[in-house]
Write a structure and sequence with these properties.
Helices cover about 35% and strands about 25% of the residues. Helix 1 packs parallel to helix 8 and helix 1 packs parallel to helix 11.
Length: about 400
């Protein structure tokens, strides 16, 4: 019996591969699965995102924007020991040498996940609007474009297919909407889909395969026997288990602490809004690099989203954050006819951010039957299938598809 705590994309992908190997799986989820970060994100599966969040210049940018109410990156000043510890390690890892060391591991996980998604789509049903046309890294200023062209060189070294585009080249890809850009890089291996539809299709498939779901259930503790977790205790009762997978996203440190395990992780709030009908819509998903936000089309639907707000666990909506996203979108796409969303239509979710930008995937020394899977930040969808595969290989004590030493949950 395997109990997975967390019903986001990492938990469901872990359940998917575990049940394929014949395990009896129960997923415990604090919500109803439709209200988490896996639903309102931009829907990218992006091998292009091989540069960890902890990278050179990110700390300076955070301090630069700290007092700006509409900035794309914001750290709420507060006396918080966990935040200070996390910030210290984040600062130590935000350098060229560490990025050079970590990027290959991130790339391996991203490419593993990308290779697995088509088989999953075939099995669970092609119902989540997946398109394999790539993703644009759109740049408004020449300096930004030069930097993206340099990153494209690194991407090609990892075997990724890229196309460098100038302004007129990008406009040809978007004939229906006027653009205001210097150019872009098209990462051809990327794909995108509707993450909410994907989650629903995956959950429905798992239920048909016999995976049990315990929804709206909060974990309150664990029964322990020496070096083993024997049961998960919740507000709805006790669940015996032989193996436990902790995939609780931004709540990872909270659940781990109940086991006596310390994990450094901060919730990074992101915002998005989905327009249900845009008559003249864009055709390609894009990262708006200068604005640090993103935009994704699904037919006549359009989602804009972004920001990284480190303000603790809360669902408070700061309208100015969404204003910054909207302003960037309409600046890059002056021909896009969209209105600023009503406050009650603005979605927000918490991405789990580790100090080095790599997820936690692996066993812990304290318990022989606990596997940690979390801390994927903005890349949960991009790394979900690969992480689920790795979790299954770890539990089966098989050689893993890629080297996972860099993802050790106890590396800090």
């Amino acid at each position: 019996m395997i109990t997975i705590i967390g019903g986001g994309v990492i938990g469901l992908c872990s359940a998917y591969y575990l049940q394929k190997e014949g395990y009896e799986v129960t997923v415990i989820e604090r919500g109803d699965i439709t209200d988490g970060c896996s639903f309102g994100n931009m829907g990218y599966m992006s091998p292009s995102h091989f540069v960890p969040l902890a990278s050179p210049g990110i700390i300076a940018e955070g301090f630069k924007h700290m007092l700006s109410s509409s900035s794309p990156f914001y750290i709420k000043p507060r006396l918080d020991w966990d935040l200070m510890q996390w910030g210290w390690h984040f600062w130590k890892n935000s350098n060229t040498a560490t990025v050079k060391k970590n990027a290959p591991h991130l790339n391996n996980l991203l490419q593993l996940s990308r290779a697995l998604i088509n088989d999953m789509r075939t099995e669970i049903g092609d119902t989540f609007d997946m398109e394999e046309k790539g993703c644009l890294m759109m740049c408004k200023h020449q300096k930004t474009l030069d930097h993206e062209f340099h990153l494209a060189d690194d991407a090609e070294k990892f075997g990724l297919k890229v196309e460098r585009l100038l302004k007129d080249d990008v406009q040809k890809l978007e004939p229906d909407v006027e653009l205001n850009v210097a150019g872009a890089v098209l990462f051809k291996d990327d794909c995108h889909f509707n993450p909410g539809k994907m989650m629903i299709a995956l959950k429905n498939n798992l239920e048909k395969k016999g995976v049990k779901f315990q929804l709206n259930t909060t974990v309150t503790g664990f029964e322990k026997a020496n070096d083993t977790i024997s049961a998960v205790i919740t507000d709805k009762g006790k669940f015996d288990c032989e193996q436990v997978v902790v995939a609780t996203g931004s709540w990872l440190p909270v659940v781990a602490k109940m086991m006596g395990i310390r994990l450094l992780l901060q919730p990074g709030k992101g915002y998005s809004h989905t327009y249900q009908h845009v008559e003249k819509n864009i055709k390609f998903p894009a990262i708006l690099v200068d604005g640090r936000c993103a935009i994704t089309p699904w037919g006549h639907q359009l989602r804009i989203g972004g920001t990284m707000e480190l303000s603790g666990i809360n669902n408070k909506v700061l309208i100015n954050r969404m204003q910054g996203i909207y302003d960037s979108a309409t600046d890059f796409y002056p021909g896009l006819k969209i209105d600023f969303p009503a406050a009650d239509k603005i979605w927000n979710g918490l991405r789990p951010v580790t100090p080095d930008g790599l997820p936690y995937i692996g066993k812990v020394s304290k318990f022989v039957n606990v596997t940690i899977a979390g801390g994927h930040a903005m890349l949960g969808i991009s790394e979900g299938t690969g992480t689920g595969k790795l979790v299954t290989e770890i539990i089966k004590q098989q050689p893993t598809s890629i080297n996972i030493n860099a993802f050790n949950p106890q590396r800090f």
